[in-house]
Design a protein that fits this description.
The structure holds 2 protein chains of 2 kinds. Chain A is an alpha/beta fold. Chain A has a single domain (about 1-200), classed as 3-Layer(aba) Sandwich (Rossmann fold), CATH 3.40.50.300. Chain A has 7 helices and 7 strands. In chain A, strands 3-2-4-1-5-6-7 form a 7-stranded parallel beta sheet, sandwiched between helices. In chain A, β6 (about 135), α6 (about 145-155) and β7 (about 160-165) form a beta-alpha-beta unit. In chain A, α1 crosses α7 (about 175-185). Chain B has 2 domains: about 10-80; about 85-300, Rossmann fold, CATH 3.40.50. In chain B, about 45% of the residues lie in helices and about 15% in strands. Chain B contains 13 helices and 9 strands. In chain B, the strands form 2 sheets. Chain B has a 6-stranded mixed beta sheet, with helices on both faces. In chain B, α11 (about 255-265) links the parallel β6 (about 240-245) and β7. In chain B, α3 packs antiparallel against α5 and α10 (about 225-235) runs parallel beside α11. Chain B is globular and about 70 Å long. Classes of the chains: A alpha/beta, B alpha/beta.
Chain lengths: ~230, ~325
């Protein structure tokens, strides 16, 4: 089985990119499945259902979505193997722009969109910087110049990645992504695999349910801003 | 790993590649204190926090930096290389029936694509964009300058082959016309940015029905002005050798001048249109139906005569438009 992690800011077009690419793969009669990780709610499973793509949804609720992701990813891969999939794609939103669900030696895709502005590539952390493939969406509604500047900025923060321009309406670009998916090596279990980047620390009182604001309530690891400098 | 530029100081690097300043600012590195040091030394001065913050290591970051320079340099070098022709070899339509026509698109020539919505225009463009080699649903093959492109060429083009321009496109950046053009020119590593920006600005104003200033925010331009700026900018600054224009007929720009500008800059121009003036101004039209190329029409001399008539009508309409704008009574 081949396994690909897809991440990107909310509303950047991840689901659409995955659906269009899996449709290309399905033409070659391979079985594909998706695990969607989200925080509070997700409706995207309906889109996958409509396309006949099996999907499991995991909602992290009041837990850190990225910690939730890591705790469940091994089981997700087991599930996919049990179902006999040729491809498993996980979809997760990079909510704090810092986190990255990317795993060493597993094809890592980051989806970003032109509409988010030319400074966005600078603001997204390892999710973008450590990705193998950067998919850029929504190029059909901004000017050619803005597309070119955006691509340049992505290249700047991640010179290693292959960049794919993707039109979610027509599916333009899905050919390249499909090729990249099929070039990736197959995986066994994820036992012992490591993340490309550390998750954010979850060690302060607010992680544990504290709600009151105040210095004496801040226990554990916290960092204070300097307002008088 | 040795790099050609690793011996240079930051100052020398900045002189050779002014655009790396952007790399430093993207990573919030203040390089002013490191002018006489090497990049390696600068790298070693950065804290562990910096590297863990970006999920990198000093050696990986060093490699990334030189990789970025190399990528940008190769972009600079290949941007002078223009594709002379694109040949589309026949495939099949949606019913699996073979297409009977091959099409050649040439540098400095305009080809129209006509056909109803859903007839296969997008698919055709997609085939060109990915330089299909009988591996897309249409089974078409695309030759670049007479030869099938290598696998590496196909996968390194990253959408740089086709520039697109359509009615749905808008400017989203919060910048003035001038700053916007400078930003685009910088990302293209252009030389002599001042003069280039001036030229694009002038050309855009020639195409626009109403003139606009350099300090106007691009998001405040009218439909016609935006289209005019996009066309001039694409013609003179885009890296793409192929330009695809989708339905710009109602945008209020001087259509003939727009096509001339693109052709003069040696672009291969494809225009999806049902506007008679535009369609008949081209050398040939591709008729798409049911996902396949059904016919190729080379613009006939009768059509060219018709075009002269149409242009008069079009000019008359343009003049009326200008008079309405001035507040004249039309009689």
């Amino acid at each position: 089985m081949r396994f690909v992690t897809v991440a990107g800011p909310p509303s950047s077009g991840k689901t659409c990119v995955i659906v269009k690419t899996l449709e290309e793969l399905q033409r070659q009669n391979v079985k594909c499945g998706v695990v969607k990780f989200d925080c509070l709610s997700a409706q995207d499973q309906l889109i996958y259902h409509a396309k006949g793509i099996p999907v499991k949804v995991g909602l992290s609720g009041n837990l850190c979505p990225d910690h939730f992701y890591v705790s469940n990813i091994e089981a997700a891969v087991e599930w996919a193997r049990g179902e006999g999939f040729d491809y498993l794609v996980t979809e997760s939103a990079g909510l704090c722009n810092r986190c990255s669900p990317h795993i060493k030696d597993i094809l890592a895709v980051c989806v970003v969109d032109n509409l988010s502005g030319v400074n966005t590539p600078k603001k997204i952390g390892p999710m973008l910087k450590s990705a193998d493939i950067v998919v850029i969406t929504k190029g059909d509604i901004v000017s050619q110049a803005e597309r070119e500047v955006f691509t340049f900025r992505v290249r700047q923060v991640n010179p290693r990645a292959r960049i794919i321009q993707f039109n979610g309406v027509t599916g333009q670009g899905s050919f390249y992504l499909k090729e990249a998916f099929s070039e990736t090596a197959t995986v066994g279990s994820l036992q012992g695999a490591t993340l490309r980047f550390t998750m954010p620390g979850a060690l302060c009182s607010y992680c544990l349910g504290e709600r009151t604001i105040g210095e004496d309530k801040q226990i554990g690891v916290s960092r204070l801003m300097e307002f008088n400098g | 790993m040795m790099h050609r530029f690793s011996e240079l100081t930051i100052k020398e690097l900045l002189q050779q590649f002014p655009w790396i300043e952007d790399f430093f600012s993207a990573h919030e590195i203040d390089c002013s204190k490191w002018q006489d040091a090497s990049f390696d030394a600068l790298c070693r001065s950065l804290s562990q926090d910096f590297f863990s913050g970006i999920g990198s290591t000093p050696s990986r970051f060093l490699e990334d930096f030189f990789l970025f320079i190399r990528e940008m340099k190769s972009l600079e070098e290949t941007s002078g290389h223009l594709i002379q022709s694109i040949k589309i070899l026949p495939g099949v339509n949606k019913m699996g029936e073979p297409e009977s026509h091959e099409v050649t698109l040439k540098q400095g020539k305009v080809t129209a694509i006509v056909g109803p919505t859903g007839s296969g225009k997008s698919r055709l463009l997609e085939d060109i964009e990915c330089l299909a080699q009988a591996d897309t649903p249409t089974k078409r093959r695309i030759l670049v300058d007479g030869a099938a492109p290598s696998y590496d060429t196909r996968f390194s083009n990253e959408g740089r082959l086709i520039a697109q321009l359509s009615q749905n496109m808008n400017f989203v950046m919060d910048l003035s016309v001038q700053d916007f053009l400078i930003m685009h020119a910088e990302s293209r590593l252009a030389e002599n940015i001042g003069a280039l920006v001036e030229t694009i600005f002038e050309r855009a104003n020639e195409l626009a029905g109403e003139p606009f200033g350099k300090t106007t925010p691009i998001t405040q331009l009218s439909g016609g002005q935006s289209r005019a700026l996009m066309i001039a900018d694409t013609a003179l600054l885009s890296q793409a050798p192929i330009i695809l224009i989708d339905e710009i007929e109602n945008a209020g720009v001087d259509k003939s001048k727009a096509l001339d500008l693109l052709v003069d800059n040696n672009k291969i121009v494809l225009i999806a249109t049902h506007d008679p003036v535009l369609a008949l101004s081209t050398e040939q039209r591709i008729i798409v139906r049911n996902g396949g190329i059904e016919k190729i029409i080379i613009t006939t001399s009768a059509e060219k005569r018709k075009l002269v008539e149409l242009k008069k009508l079009d000019d008359a309409a343009m003049q009326l438009r200008a008079r309405l704008r001035r507040g004249d009574v039309i009689c």
